[in-house]
């Protein structure tokens, strides 16, 4: 894989079901911290070398945001176990790497899919698959997580990660992806992110978590993978 230049409103990458909802057309310019600045980004599989950066990105959100319901910081060993479990189960975990003008590379975000629940009907797990026709591998339901470094938000990194993880999901014949998004007054940007990229809000679960001295609702966003096509501004 090679580094690609990316910029917010000029390089939007979308994915959508084959029947576009209309919400997916066009570009969505927003204020940028450094408007117009192009950056080089590479998307690749996560490795143990990325873990320190992932810890930093995650801990910043744990300490300051309801986007994760974790309340205690994670460390490298925690993330090593998490990545190893994902990899063992065959779930994809991708990272975004930024190269600065000197060529120095920094991990600035990640996106992974993971098991939604353990019961077999959600997963068509390997145990079941070994006894069923291969077509049953299309039954899988997975959950998505994605975090980008705050200094790099609004530069299409999240969109690139999403596009790449959807290709991985399709390769694995997953059927549907759920994004569980805390519905916080401060979270309208992150909710819109999913809707504008083809996820549909199926419902909001009330007061599922309690963080920063308040109850937090969770929106359940769903993307069906069957018939999904990927679109960029160019096509
Ligand atoms: C959700 C998230 C991954 C998006 O990442 P990103 O790299 O900013 O993604 P993009 O740049 O592709 O798109 C971000 C959207 O915010 C807009 N935006 C512009 N400037 C922005 C800024 N300074 N900060 C955040 N978003 C900005 C972008 O234009 C884009 O708008 P659109 O949805 O209307 O197209 C990121 O905000 C994040 O890590 N949030 C915290 C974790 C989280 O909530 N994860 C989701 C649940 S697991």
From TrEMBL:
GO terms for molecular function: acyltransferase activity, transferring groups other than amino-acyl groups. Signal peptide: none annotated. SUPFAM superfamilies: Acyl-CoA N-acyltransferases (Nat). The keyword Acyltransferase applies. Keywords: Acyltransferase, Transferase. Residues 1-27 are annotated as: Disordered. Residues 9-19 have a biased composition (Polar residues). Pfam families: Acetyltransf_1. It comes from the Eukaryota. Residues 41-226 form the N-acetyltransferase domain. PANTHER family: N-ACETYLTRANSFERASE, UPF0039 PROTEIN C11D3.02C. This is N-acetyltransferase domain-containing protein.
